[in-house]
Amino acid sequence: MDFDGLSVDQAPPISAPLRFFLTAPLFGVLAGVLILFSDAQTLSNRHSLDAIAIAHAITIGFLSFVMLGALTQMLPVLAGAKIAKVGMVASVSHLLLLFGTLFMIFGLQNAHSALTLAASLFLGSGFLIMIISMLFGLIRVKNITPSVRAMITSLIFAFMIVLIGVHLLLSYGLEKFSELHVLFSNIHSVWAIFGFAGILIIGVAFHILPMFYVAPRFKKFCKQNVVWIISAGLFLWLIFNLYFEEYSIASKVWVALFFWAFATTVYIKLNARRRPVSDVTVWYWKSSAIFMTLGSFAWVINDLYDAKYIVVVSILIGGGFIFSIMSGMLYKIIPFLVWFHLNSKGYMSIPTMNQMIDKRLSKLQFILFIVSIIGFMISFFIPSLLALFAVIFIISMIILEYNIAVPVLIYIKTIKTKPDFDMSMFTMKVES
User: Fold this and answer.
1) Most buried by CB count within 10 Å: which residue of 45, 89, 239, 378?
2) How confident is the model at residue 306 (pLDDT cuts 50, 70, 90)?
3) Quick one: which H or E segment has residue 270?
4) What is the reported pLDDT for 76?
5) How many CB atoms are closer than 10 A to CB 421?
6) Which tens digit of pLDDT belongs to each residue from 153-182?
7) Torsion angle of alpha carbons 332, 338, 341, 347, nearest 10°?
8) How big is the chain by its Cα radius of gyration, in Å?
9) What is the CATH number for 134?
């Protein structure tokens, strides 16, 4: 593993990212349960309240929680960006997002205006606290690397989609919808997938793939240009949708082309890594590259069918691409955090990162997850199969929660014992 360029002395307290990571699979379980008891025909309409609630159980409850947890850890370590009072910020934001997501899900499903309005307040506050704190930390960074630039860009997109999301949620709570409601909804979803999550994944990959997988580094052109090219394509897509809707497919081709190129590059680099030992996280990265390739083309082609298959496209990109990478990151980051924090406290007789998670269980979880993603797409055409694949998805999320909880339990058990070495004389003050 290559730790070059990491500011490990600035790592936040382990509780800051872990609270987000441990919550995420629980929302995955909740999403699976909601799918299990939902009607397939209703879910095929992306504008139905059930579909919106379930989509956000996944996008906010799982994906955003993992991304915010990862950023909490990566900004100080990877970018050297100090988040002021990171422990308090993470704790408050986590609670607001936790209750805000639950209020949104049950408020929308039950047409409960008070819950929906409360959700807009909680979610808006929770996201903005984290986003603004992170942006303040990043603008003070002196060494603006491609990864840092991508993080800043993704957080700017996150800031905008949160404002749009709050507006949309208020519309449902007040039952007052503007003429641009559908357009705002489209901007919210496209910028969330490609602008926030997509660009963040690209920026993190610049550093994570060489560090964790000893893969070849990305070319200078890719690191210097891809983020702003994709960003330009997303703003062009917005302009076309506002004024020249008939030409919007051109901007979709632009964005899809570069995400396809990124996915292809990731697949090639993982095959060319210097230590070709395969594990479930490599499988997740490779499968995400395949899903992104299929999803990019499907997103463009879907225009020819009047967006009839947008749910399938969402499953390919949101589930197959983003969800896969977030799951793979959990398997890498959590054992690393436990090992790093215990090691830094003087504990040497501890399991290695590879020993903290049962490989057989992680492989089973991966297989069940991939089967469920493919199954959800099949269920769009054969609705009677939806319940079966919902159960498979629930089981995969339960196993994921167990797998990532085990290293945390190792940390809790170990920290109660006496360390092998007294590291207090080497301890640097870390703001909590």
Assistant:
1) 89
2) low
3) helix 248-271
4) 81
5) 11
6) 999 999 999 999 999 999 999 988 888 888
7) -130
8) 21
9) 1.20.210.10
Measured between alpha carbons, how far apart are the two ends of the chain, in Å?
27
Total structural domains in the chain?
Answer: 1
Q: What angle do CA 52, 56, 57 make, to 5 degrees?
A: 115
Position 290, amino acid: I
CA nearest 366: which of 409, 334, 333, 320? 320
Instruction: Extract the tokens encoding 4.
Output: 């070059």
Domain residue limits at 374: 8-413
CA distances from 246 to 16, 184, 255, 304, 314 (A): 46, 18, 17, 12, 22
Residue given tokens 């590291």 in the structure block? 423
- Alpha-carbon span 206 to 148, nearest angstrom: 10
Nearest residue to 174 (alpha-carbon basis) of 121, 220, 137, 222: 121
What's phi and psi for 50, nearest 5 deg?
A: -65, -45
Distance CA 251, CA 240 (A): 8
pLDDT at 430 over 50: no
- Whether residue 427 is contained in a domain is answered as no
Give the pLDDT band of residue 60 (cuts 50, 70, 90).
very high
Tens-place pLDDT, residues 184-201: 999 999 999 999 999 999
Cβ neighbours of residue 145 closer than 8 Å, sequence gap 6 or more: 5, 79, 206, 207
Per-residue tokens: 351: 């399991």
Provide the whole-model pTM. 0.90
Query: CA-CA distances (angstroms) from residue 187 to 159, 216, 238, 268?
Result: 13, 35, 7, 31
Is 70 exceeded by the pLDDT of residue 428?
Answer: no
Mean pLDDT across 258-264: 91
**Structural tokens at position 95:** 């609670």
| Dihedral sign for Cα atoms in the order 205, 206, 212, 215 | positive
In a domain, 151, yes or no: yes
Q: Is residue 92 part of a domain?
A: yes
Token code pair at residue 80: 């050297």
- Which residue, 279, 261, 262, 276, is CA-closest to 328? 279
